[in-house]
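Design review, sub-item: ligand-bound model
Attendees: FS, YL, KQ
YL presented the inputs for the pyridoxal-5'-phosphate complex:
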Amino acid sequence: MDVVNKLKEVQQRVQRACARVNRSTKEVRLIAVTKYLDLEGTRQFLDLGLNHLGESRTQHAIPKIEYLGSTASWHFIGSLQKNKAKELPGRFTYLHSLDRYSLALELDKQFKKNKGTLKCFIQVNVSGEESKHGIFPNELKEFLNEASGFTSLKMIGLMTMAPKTAKPKEVRLIFRELKDLQKEVQLQHHSVSHLSMGMSQDYEIAIEEGATWIRLGTALVES
Ligand SMILES: *Cc1c(COP(=O)(O)O)cnc(C)c1O
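KQ shared the predicted structure:
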């Protein structure tokens, strides 16, 4: 199937998932993950009106950002090494994988230099998997209190990934827990209003559980 039809199918599924839980499709925004694509493939996404694009490695993203300019908003979605933090200012508007204080400190420093702001999702390890990045739910409040001192980072939401092997029921519980956490912390940290959850294999469940940003790669790539 080509990209146009893939996108149509995704849009239909998003609509149906929204309808099942009485949500407006306007509440769910799509990040087209371009990490599998070359420059032309990425440009094709832009031509289709997909203007929130996600990348997980700076070395793949930078040539695309330079080539395509700032017509898109770029989301950094992968795990980020501290020494790469300086690559983000002027290129990325969003980070979905803020998972430690030392990284936040470095990013704040780099964005301040550039007089920019980075909108951040805190990655939460809801499932407790050893291999997963992310802070644990019981560390979230303390993290947010510490992060409130960063003037160039704005905490806008929480992000999680469900284990690839999890059953739909388990995935749903993970997403539900992230939503519960978000509601709880938003009482004190009002800007934490978004939920970045749902990838190609589980985005419909994520929407039913309250996702406001879904991150799709495979579901949009030609097959
Ligand atoms: C690759 C990636 C995605 C997209 O994954 P698909 O399964 O291809 O939709 C979403 N989020 C993160 C963090 C990723 O690394």
